[in-house]
Every structure is written in C-alpha cells, then in structure tokens.
C-alpha cells in the first residue's frame, strides 16, 4: 500500500466538492459520491427533474415491526443509489421520536431505541447488500430541530448509552459504513468534536468507519480532529483539509490522529467505490407492500373495515389528502416523486369499479406554500422561466435560462453549473398565470436575499434587504414566505415576475406560490352533503409536505382546526366513517371516537394510493403497530417542549423514561399505546415458555381470514422496556409457535462507570404494550 504524505492525508479529511470526497488515484483511493436519504436518493442538485423511487418514511417502516421487509426496502434504495451512481447514502436516521413535536419525527423509526436500532440495522444491511455504504445519522441527540445549530442536549450518561446511542450501536454491529455527526452539542461539546462519544463508538464498539460531519457542521480544526471527526463535508474545506497540516505541525493535533482519519476515509473509499449489485425485486410491488405493512388500524367498530367492494352502493371519499396526499416531509432529502404516482382517490376509484364514488375535499387541500401553476414565457408546458444573471442589476441578457416546474428552487455552489452564487448576482423567474375564478388570489414569495414580486407589471411585494451569508442556511431551512392579495377575474392572464438578488453564499433559495380564492363554508357544506347521502365514508385528513421540515419543530400535535371541524361535521351525519390519518408522527387523535374506524397511514411513499385501496378493500390487511405512543393529552408525553433555554440547553429530563416507558412510570394511560394495532382477524394467545434465552409463544388465529400478529416482549425491571419482537402470519384456524430471541443488550444497565448485566428477567408477552397477556422468566 502506498504511503501517504501528510498533505495527502490532510486532503482526505475534507470533501472535494458538495457531494464528493477527495481521491488519490496512485494510492488506489477513489472519490466517493454521497447522497442524502433515507426515503430514497435525493437529488444533489435539489432538482425536481431528478425523479427517484420514494419509499415509506421511517416511522411507517418502524410500524411494520418487520425487519425482513425493512431490509428489502433498504436494498431498493441501494438499487436507486446504483442507478444514480451514488456510493454512500446519508441514512438511516436513527434518532428518536422523543417528542411528538420534532420536525423530522417522520424520519425516525420509533420512540423506542430497540425498535429504532433493529430497524436501522436491517435497513443498513439491505442498502449495503448492493455495495452502497450507509452513513448512519445523526450522531447523536439530534432528536429535534429548534435551534439545532446551537442547541446543547443535556443528557445523563445512562440515557446516552442505553437510549440514544443504542440504535447507532446496533447499526455499527450490522457493519455500517460511516457515521454522520449531528449539528447540535451534547453536554457542552459540538457533536463534530465530541471525543467522549467518539471514544465509545470507535474504541468500545470497534467501529472502523469514518465520522463525517453533517454539511457545514464543523466549528474548528483541532477540535474536530481531536474529537474524532475524520471527514468534513462539504468541500472545499472550511476547518479541516489543508488546515490539518498546520494543526499537526503546530502540535495541536497528533500526527497519528490525522493518519487515522485519513486511513478511515481511504478504507471507506476503497470499500464503497467497488462493484455494485442492484436488487432484482419488483420495486413497484415492494413499495405497495411496504406502504400497507406500515398502516396501523387503531379503531374498527362494527368491523366497518374492510369495505368490501360491492357491499356499498355509494361511497363518499372526503378530505384534502385523498386528492393531495402527503407522501413525505420537507427536508433537504426530499425525493422528486414521479408524476405517474397514483393518488389515493384515483386508486380507490380504480379498485371499487362500478361503486359510485363521490369526492369532496371539505377543506382547502393546499400546503403552507402552495404551488405556482404557471406557463413559461414561451407559452408551452408548465413552470417558471428562470433567468440567471451575473450581476445584481439583472441587466442585459441572462447567462443561462431554463424552465423549472417547482415552487421551490435551491442552488448549492459547485452543484448548479449555470448560475453565479458565490458572489453578488441575481435570478429572475417569470410565468403566465391564468385565474379560473373571480376573487382575491394570494401570492407568496420568500428567498435567501432581496426579493421583489410583480403581478401584471405591478410591484406587489418588495423586500430590498440582502441577507448576510451567516443567515442564509437558517432562512432556507425555515422556508417562511410573505404573501399579498391580488384581485383577479376568471380567465384573466397575468405575468408573474420574481426578481431575486443576493450576496455570495454556499447555498441560496427562492420559493413562491399562489392560492386561489375559496369559500371554506361552501366546501364544508358540500362535504357534509356527500357524507349524508353515502352508505359509507372514507375521510382522509392529514398534513402537507411542509408540515414536517428541517430546522423547525411543530407548535403542537393537533390536526388543523378546519380538518377537525370537518371530522366532527361528517361524523355527525354518517355513522359509517373510516378516517385515514396521513400524518407522519404522533398526533392528537382525540376526535377518533367520533368515527367507526381510524387508520394511520403515516407518510407511506409513492405506493400510497394502491396500498391504501388494497387495505380498504381487504385485499391485504393493515399490517402496522404503533411505533410511537398517542397520548390523551399533550402534557402526558414524557418529553414535549423542544425550546432550549436562554443558554441553549435542552435538558433531557425524561432520562431513560422515553415514550411509553414514561407513560408507564407515571401511570398515564395513553389514548393508543405503543405497539397497538389490529388487522382483519383475531388471535388467541395460548401460552409462553422459556427455552434458554428464547421465549416461545403459541398463538391461534381464531378469525376467518389469514392475518399477522406482532409478538412483543417487555421487561419490567428496572424500567418497563421492549426487549424483543417477532411478526408472524397465521392462516385462519391455524396455530403457530413463535420463537422470540430477546436482545441481550436490553439486559445490561449502565451504572456508575460500567455495564451491569442482569442474571434473570421477568418478561411479559402480548400484542401491545398495554395488552400483555402472558408472563415468563428467562436467564439472559
């Protein structure tokens, strides 16, 4: 192996560009192409034209409690990486849904560390089976978004190791390729400089992969290297890279540490730049299967579901998410969804054939930032004509022009090849909008610099102040927009122009949209009329893709007030209502007793429509169980508020009593418990016996159709906690014997300065954390 010079070693510690690592060809060290995840392969250009397959969100996958299925989904994403020429994916995300308010909770598998870790490890194995590396994120305690760039998670050592590091440990044991350090601090130290955590991972776990900084998440040279960081991303370097040479020569960083960092990056380059093996499984079928497997049936009074086709002459499909579903959240890892993805409404109509299906949205279905349905200046197609200029005057001919059919544009320096973003310059976006009805139209605009909007030649918004480079990323992540009303007549065609000027920064963004007039009262009245005359109602409520975003947590767990009002009004006129909740996190379901049935669909990816139609019709059962607890009241959650204090501290006062553990410790009865859910059959739990370390559970399907059950094992000491689970499918009338091997790590407790192992454990088994019907004692 060719020895590297100190300059070559230093070059490996910083990215070569936004999404690539450095290469040293003569030493057989290849450049790695990285991409964001985890729901698919995100466009490095953040370009809506880079369409990729969209899998269910992590919460939906966690709800399946099916590790084999999760591994297959990981392999599917790995296949997408191979197609796109990607060597390593920033995924899985194994942070915890500690609070239901977390802005990225849809990316978290569960509130439980064991389920999260086993799911993340399964996804990692699947992805890496294709020759694509998994960079597990975000190490560690990046469990919320509020002030994440300065927040300090104050967490005890036991909770740190048993709760928050456990998922990373399980992914490391699965052979994960790398770890991505978080933006926040833990116990006073930036995660990119956290030597204590680095020591645990690299020395105690023998993890051989590199620590990679989250993008722009570094703060110093010596602090980063000495704290265990191996690779600063993106490039060109800000703190590491060539600056590491001076740090070593000045005695701030040991030469051995730089050599170790370079070696870890070099080994990753050699390991993941080699032969790729895409999976052969049918992606369409798998995405539908996975979406259905994560849907959780929480309520089904009178066995309303399944709605067998032909049973009802007239079905009303009501709610905004039937025609405008939420497939994913609004992070930088957002996947460009194929326009051919079948919406739930269309899939339901196709599956129910001759049944009369009537649809009413009931409330305005558009997101916080609506679309911009315009025609470009040339008059053909859809989208805004985007002109790029080399100066802030926007004078003369543009240096480049393209048409972009999106309401949000993001440009990273070094990724978008045509515009000028590293010095003062500007962009103009223009398109023709035609009003379809009379009334006040609300136009929206936001940007990371000065922005002006004209409608029909008239300036309707003018924000002249350009933004300092230090504020750009926060503004981009938040995505806040200003808006103004413009009166238009039906058929009126107006030119919409948005001028955006900025100072140089590594990233810039521009976003806009228009919302037409609507009568909320009339929409609600039409929905109620449709429900009143229907034999059954499918009521689809939920979120939009900008409900869950980076850098912003939610204010509460409530569904939008107009949707709650829609639920109450529809349920008041029809007793046969099945609610489908298209929500990506734990939510306030206090309205669920109004309806006969409640199905949680999470963010199910592009297979949403066909999967939902199949579940509703009874072609397949809803296979999920709750990976998070749904509380009766927000104050019942062990952790809720996510605002750091004045010095930036966010105290993890729930310690090890995260999620359902805290409910049990405080004797709080949830509305729907962790692990709860049902299919379309019934099971009798016959008995449980110990067989060495294993627990063997006997079940009988006493229903009339094949169905699945999730056998869940919990310990009771020192805290109530999940220690193992297994999913089993049993035919009607059949009996099955299910063997569950508890995870050994769940019987060790961190006490003082080391682990203490339990010699015996009393376990309970059941179909949910609040329905434990069998007991057994084992020797771990």
In short:
It contains 18 helices and 34 strands.
Structural features, described:
Among the domains are: 296-367 and 519-620, Glycoside hydrolase family 3 C-terminal domain (Rossmann fold), CATH 3.40.50.1700; 384-515, Sandwich (Jelly Rolls), CATH 2.60.120; 681-778, Sandwich (Immunoglobulin-like), CATH 2.60.40. It has 18 helices and 34 strands. Helix 13 (344-352) packs across helix 17. The longest helix has 18 residues, at 67-84. It is globular and about 75 Å long. The chain starts with 5 loop residues before the first helix and ends with a strand. The model has no long low-confidence stretch (mean pLDDT 96).
Number of DSSP E strands: 34
CATH architecture annotation of one domain = 3-Layer(aba) Sandwich
**CATH class designation of one domain:** Alpha Beta
Low-confidence stretches: none
**How big is the Rg?**
27 Å
> What class, by secondary structure content?
alpha/beta
What name does CATH use for the topology of one domain?
A: Rossmann fold
β-strand percent reads: 25-35%
Q: Could you state the CATH homologous superfamily of one domain?
A: Glycoside hydrolase family 3 C-terminal domain
| Overall mean confidence score, pLDDT | 96
